[in-house]
Amino acid sequence: MSESRSLSRVAASKQKAEIKKQQTIAPEGSQFEEIGVEEWMCDTLKSMSIKEPTEIQRACIKPIMAGKDVIGGAKTGSGKTAAFAIPILQKLSQDPYGVFALVLTPTRELAYQIAEQFRVLGKNIGVKECVVVGGMDMMTQALELQKRPHVIIATPGRLRDHIRSSSGAVNLSRCRFLVMDEADRMLSSTFVPELQVILPLLPKDRQTLLFTATMTESILALKDAEEDPAKKPFVHVCDMSISTVNTLDQYYVFVPSQVKFVYLAHLLLTDDLKEKSVIIFCGRCSTAELVTVMLKELGIRCTALHSEMTQQQRLDSLGKFRAEVVKILISTDVGSR
After folding, report:
1. Per the CATH hierarchy, to which homologous superfamily does domain 15-237 belong?
2. Residues 70, 86: Cα–Cα separation, whole Å
3. Which site in 184, 194, 218, 224 is 20 to 30 Å from 69, CA atoms measured?
4. SMART domains this protein is in (predicted)?
């Protein structure tokens, strides 16, 4: 037993060392103009109060604009979506047609989040994006796909369903970019059947962009799969150690399990939290539903978010929370997306 643990520690240490070797230094340049971002995009970023590029953006935007395949690793919240959306939209502005880019993501929530970024960043060029995920009406999605959107943001399962539904339902023959967000999950065995249907429809000369918050050996191995040095992907891995912001206070509250919900309700009813937005994370869908029902019975306005809800119900819950119609969101890990 101790020997297997030692082997596991050695393997983990080797993986960390390999990832550390890829942690290149991003080029200097504190302004977007210095890394090849065009004036119209800079104006859009300024209107969003985004003044300086993050490390992953400084490192990856230029190589993508230069036509390189890219593997990028950075922790959640570091600006990975903009790192690929900005150069894709700039290329699209030069030669607008659909379908120009396909973005694959493992979850519905992340798909909507990415679509929103494309919509906001591409508003000055009239970008048309289409979200193709499960839980929504297939006919409505099929009609949107027929309009040849510039960017398709999809979960693999639903996109495969559309491809199989009828010949020519999804035309990817001229697609310039394939993006896999959360590439560690996209390249796992879970999505192999779907990718085997989708990838053959893409042109061989496309650019492939892989971004992840969890760098794995299998992803890093892709950089050596191409023998031609000119075609090797550009790789940049930021420091991916997890840290919390200085303004966040963290507390552990140890209470007997049979009365923990009583303590939770009491905390939510205190003056300190009454008017504040609160997210309560639960480990199971059933727990999230239980807490939601309990709080509503106590007269506390709240809404739930978990995978057993329909996609429309999830969007409605998020909308209520964002608009502050309700102050409390009870969620499983889908809320982190």
Report:
1. P-loop containing nucleotide triphosphate hydrolases (3.40.50.300)
2. 14
3. 194
4. DEXDc
